[in-house]
């Protein structure tokens, strides 16, 4: 009787496991269909938005300004990383960053900080300037929390949506302060996967400007997000590596200071 009951339970478990596997296969097929339809869907959204523009040149110029403003912001932030590394470590950061280039390439290709974690960890270890226990802690933590690229891009994108929607007169100091707060907190909670910040942009837009639904020019962001998302991820990964180097420097300095204190105490006791 006990053996029969156990066999029946095992059969039910196998049927349940088979059901879950079949559901997984169905979901994978659906995701595959969505991925194949995404280019055509984005193209139709962009075409619809362009068709509703009375001044097409101005619309494209606004998109160009969005790209330029984002690129300038990312460049300045990357320069801040370099400057911080140079000031703290008292040496050129370029030799260290040369080791990080493979991680930056993977970040640009995948647009995912989480997918780049193994490569970033290996790169900072191969630099010889970050010990394993620091890289294995700082890099995964940074992939989750360090979303500087998103924090820079979200306010720019939200202002772009507001200006192109005719809400430029509603921009004020309070609006910018709220955007900065939402971007800072929201970017830290964004998933480290491609295009995860698009939902936050819509949320920030609706919150700051008391709107609802999808902004009228949101399709423009969809059209260029494949590029900007890769640039954001590359900046985030660079920041993860830079912070790991800074933590390693501070730990080495603290260890050296502790050794010096112990030596001084030994001389005084001697």
Characterization of the model:
The chain has 270 residues and is mostly helical. The protein is 84% helix and 0% strand. The chain has helices spanning 2-51, 56-89, 94-110, 113-126, 132-145, 148-164, 173-189, 198-208, 218-269. It starts with a helix and ends with a helix.
Main attributes?
84% helix; globular; mainly alpha; 270 residues
Write the layout of secondary structure elements.
Layout: H1 2-51, H2 56-89, H3 94-110, H4 113-126, H5 132-145, H6 148-164, H7 173-189, H8 198-208, H9 218-269
The overall average pLDDT, rounded, is 84
Instruction: Please report the total strand number as a whole number.
Output: 0
**N-to-C SSE series?**
HHHHHHHHH
Distance between the termini: 80 Å
Evaluate the radius of gyration: 25 Å
Structural class: mainly alpha
Specify the number of helices.
9
Please describe the biggest sheet, giving its number of strands, its sense, and whether it closes into a barrel.
none
Helix content: over 70%
Low-confidence runs: none
Residue share in β-strands: under 5%
Global geometry: globular
């Amino acid at each position: 009787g006990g053996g029969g009951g156990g066999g029946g339970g095992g059969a039910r478990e196998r049927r349940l496991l088979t059901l879950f596997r079949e559901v997984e296969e169905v979901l994978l097929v659906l995701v595959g269909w969505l991925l194949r339809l995404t280019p055509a869907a984005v193209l139709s959204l962009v075409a619809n938005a362009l068709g509703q523009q009375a001044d097409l040149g101005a619309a494209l110029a606004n998109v160009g300004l969005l790209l330029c403003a984002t690129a300038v912001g990312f460049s300045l932030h990357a320069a801040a990383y370099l400057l911080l590394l140079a000031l703290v470590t008292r040496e050129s950061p370029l030799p260290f960053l040369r080791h990080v280039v493979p991680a930056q390439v993977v970040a640009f290709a995948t647009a995912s900080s989480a997918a780049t974690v193994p490569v970033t960890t290996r790169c900072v270890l191969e630099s010889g300037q970050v010990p394993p226990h620091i890289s294995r802690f700082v890099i995964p933590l940074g992939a989750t929390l360090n979303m500087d690229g998103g924090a820079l891009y979200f306010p720019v994108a939200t202002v772009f949506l507001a200006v192109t929607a005719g809400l430029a007169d509603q921009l004020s100091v309070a609006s910018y302060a709220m955007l900065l707060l939402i971007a800072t907190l929201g970017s830290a909670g964004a998933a480290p996967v491609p295009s995860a910040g698009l939902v936050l942009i819509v949320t920030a837009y609706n919150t700051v400007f008391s709107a609802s639904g999808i902004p009228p020019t949101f399709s423009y962001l969809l059209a260029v997000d494949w590029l900007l998302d890769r640039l954001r991820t590359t900046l985030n990964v660079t920041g993860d590596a830079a912070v790991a180097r800074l933590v390693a420097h501070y730990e080495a300095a603290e260890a050296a200071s502790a050794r010096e204190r112990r030596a001084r105490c030994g001389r005084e006791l001697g």
